[in-house]
């Protein structure tokens, strides 16, 4: 379990509570800290956090933010760092100290910015994190707690929280107090509204359950839905990628692309592509696209790998699809489960499959299935040779 620790009272209280309960819960803890380099005290605080974790024998990972600072860029930097640490050290859950006050502040910030209904309540106690193939979780155990309930005395006070340079600080220091002056129960009413919207979105999600968790959306099935439901199905699908921000204009464009004729492939962010083929639309990580060259005869120069194939049947090299299964060492399982069980690197999980007659004989640079192994000594067979493009 990786705890995101800034050093403030929120995250330090979270750390203290989890540290005290770790034996009872049967969990192991690690800590991740990002030094945003925005205050003179930042380096000292990072050093003291590192020393504290060293005394407690808790693994500590830190990173320094670089580049022009903005809240959005800093958030993207943090979560990319967390995802990297979790992948490298096989950690399945990220825990953050978001609490009830954050929930209310976020709602008001997104209302000011004109966010869509789904994003007004995007903070959930448990949700998937990172690429869907990574099977990581983001956990927020403090959403029912108010900041006034936090009790730790070992934390750093960020003086910049009193400044009103950033929108979040203005919401916290100016706007919410002004609304509460009009109605002391304003925050409670806002929390109630958030809960009500959550219930409404739960109904929408239930209605769209046939598409829930899908890696690809069937175009025919999608087209059968009411246009109003299509709107929310696409939102539900995009929500599987927490770090992907899609503007209203881009969202409307994607909805139009899905419903018009023709195929489509284009980058929708620095890390993701949107793809529409003849049968599906889907989002894929651009960083996972390793290209290979293949041949039915050995390459003249350089190293290469191979997959043995039956002598008859069309050879198809394609991306992984929902429901794909492989048999390896006598065990039949979904490819996704094979990747997770064998801790296959995220970058390789998008590698192409070698398929003959709808049966999978291998995943390039990842595995060779029992179907291929059984042909090793066959007199009549084909061999597919492959290597990464240089």
Automatic annotation (TrEMBL):
ATP binds at residues 6-11. InterPro entries: Lysidine-tRNA-synth_C (IPR012796), Rossmann-like_a/b/a_fold (IPR014729), TilS/TtcA_N (IPR011063), tRNA_Ile_lys_synt (IPR012094), tRNA_Ile_lys_synt_N (IPR012795). Signal peptide: none annotated. Gene3D superfamilies: HUPs. One of its GO terms (molecular function) is tRNA(Ile)-lysidine synthase activity. Residues 315-386 form the Lysidine-tRNA(Ile) synthetase C-terminal domain. The keyword Transmembrane helix does not apply. It catalyses: cytidine(34) in tRNA(Ile2) + L-lysine + ATP = lysidine(34) in tRNA(Ile2) + AMP + diphosphate + H(+). GO terms for cellular component: cytoplasm. It is an enzyme of class 6 (ligase). It is found in: Cytoplasm. The keyword Ligase applies. Keywords: ATP-binding, Cytoplasm, Ligase, Nucleotide-binding, tRNA processing. Its main location: cytoplasm. One of its GO terms (biological process) is tRNA modification. Its EC number is 6.3.4.19. CDD domains: TilS_N. Belongs to the tRNA(Ile)-lysidine synthase family. Ligates lysine onto the cytidine present at position 34 of the AUA codon-specific tRNA(Ile) that contains the anticodon CAU, in an ATP-dependent manner. Cytidine is converted to lysidine, thus changing the amino acid specificity of the tRNA from methionine to isoleucine. The N-terminal region contains the highly conserved SGGXDS motif, predicted to be a P-loop motif involved in ATP binding. This is tRNA(Ile)-lysidine synthase.
């Amino acid at each position: 379990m990786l705890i995101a620790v800034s050093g403030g009272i929120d995250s330090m209280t979270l750390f203290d509570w989890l540290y005290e309960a770790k034996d009872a819960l049967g969990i192991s803890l690690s800590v991740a800290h990002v030094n945003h380099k925005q205050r003179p005290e930042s380096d000292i605080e990072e050093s003291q956090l590192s020393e504290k974790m060293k005394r407690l024998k808790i693994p500590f990972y830190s990173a320094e933010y670089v580049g022009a600072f903005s809240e959005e860029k800093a958030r993207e930097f943090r979560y990319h760092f967390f995802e990297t640490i979790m992948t490298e050290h096989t950690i399945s859950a990220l825990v953050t100290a978001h609490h009830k006050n954050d929930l209310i502040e976020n709602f008001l910030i997104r209302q000011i910015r004109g966010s869509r209904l789904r994003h007004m309540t995007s903070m959930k106690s448990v949700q998937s994190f990172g690429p869907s193939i990574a099977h990581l979780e983001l956990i927020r155990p403090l959403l029912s707690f108010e900041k006034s309930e936090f009790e730790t005395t070992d934390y750093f006070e960020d003086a910049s929280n009193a400044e009103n340079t950033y929108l979040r600080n203005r919401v916290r220091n100016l706007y919410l107090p002004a609304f509460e002056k009009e109605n002391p129960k304003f925050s409670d009413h806002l929390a109630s509204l958030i809960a009500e919207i959550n219930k409404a979105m739960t109904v929408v999600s239930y209605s769209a359950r046939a598409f829930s968790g899908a890696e690809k959306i069937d175009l025919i099935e999608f087209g059968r839905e009411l246009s109003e439901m299509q709107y929310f199905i696409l939102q539900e699908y995009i929500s599987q990628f927490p770090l992907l921000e899609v503007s209203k204009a881009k969202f409307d464009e994607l909805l139009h692309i899905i419903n018009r004729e023709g195929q489509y492939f284009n980058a929708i962010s620095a890390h993701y592509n949107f793809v529409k083929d003849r049968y599906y639309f889907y989002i894929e990580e651009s960083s996972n696209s390793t290209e290979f060259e293949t041949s039915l005869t050995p390459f003249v120069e350089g190293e290469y790998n191979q997959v043995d194939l039956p002598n008859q049947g069309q050879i198809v090299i394609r991306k992984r699809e929902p429901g794909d299964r492989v048999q390896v060492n006598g065990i039949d399982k979904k490819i996704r489960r094979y990747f997770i069980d064998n801790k296959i690197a995220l970058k390789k999980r998008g590698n192409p499959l070698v398929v003959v007659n709808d049966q999978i004989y291998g995943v390039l640079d990842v595995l060779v299935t029992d179907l291929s192994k059984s042909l090793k000594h066959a007199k009549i067979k084909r061999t597919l040779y492959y290597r990464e493009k240089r």
